Amino acid sequence: MIYNAIVECIEAVQERGLSFRAYCLPSVVFVIEIGEFTLHTNSHLQELLLQNHKSYLVSMQMNDEYRRFTTSFPFRYFWKLGVRFGFKF
What is the residue range of 64's domain? Predict the structure, then answer.
């Protein structure tokens, strides 16, 4: 997962005061356009942008493996036990 790295890249671009556009392309490509370098105006990429929900769904499906792992026994048991004793997760 590279979410934090993407956020850091966007923050770096913002800190430099550069104009940019950021978006996902199906299914695992993230784009940051800086300045007038506009890929999104390309007709082939516009078609992909209309399908960018696929990148979100792929990401959620990949995260679901982690969710299933962390909510399985024994993790779920220890989480409930920790909550009962006042631990905050």
Answer: 3-84
